Amino acid sequence: MKKVFYNIMIVAALAMTTSCKDYLDKSPLSDIGDTDPYKNYMNFQGFTDELYNTIPMMTTPDFHCCWNFGEDEYWQPNETRMLAYAIDHGNNWGWDESYYSYFHSGAGNPTSTNRDNKGHLWGMSWYGIRKANVGLAHLDLLQDATDEEKKLIKGQLLFFRGFFHFLLMQNWGGLPYIDMEIPADAVMRYPRLNYQQTADKAAEDFQAAADLLPIDWDQTTVGKATLGKNNLRINKVMCLAFLGKDLLWAGSPLMNKESQGKAEYNKEYCQKAAQAFGEILKICDETKRYELADFKDYSLLFYTFNQNYKTPGLKEAIFYENVNNNWRWNMVNDFRPSTLSGSGIKCYPTANYADYFGMANGKPIKDITKKDAESGYDPEYPFRDRDPRFYENFVFDGVKCVKAGNYVGNDPHRQYASLYTGGTYRVANRDKDCFTGYLNMKWDSQYANDWDGYRENNQVTLSLVRLADIYLMYAEAVAQGYGSLTATSTNYSMNPIAAVNKVRARAGVGGIDAEYTGEVDKFMSELRRERAVELAFEGHRYNDLRRWLLLDKAPYNKKTAVYFDRAADQTDAERYENPKNNHVLNLREEVLFTRQLTDMHYWFPFPRKDVQMYEGFKQNPGWE
Question: What pTM value is reported for the model?
Answer without folding.
Answer: 0.93
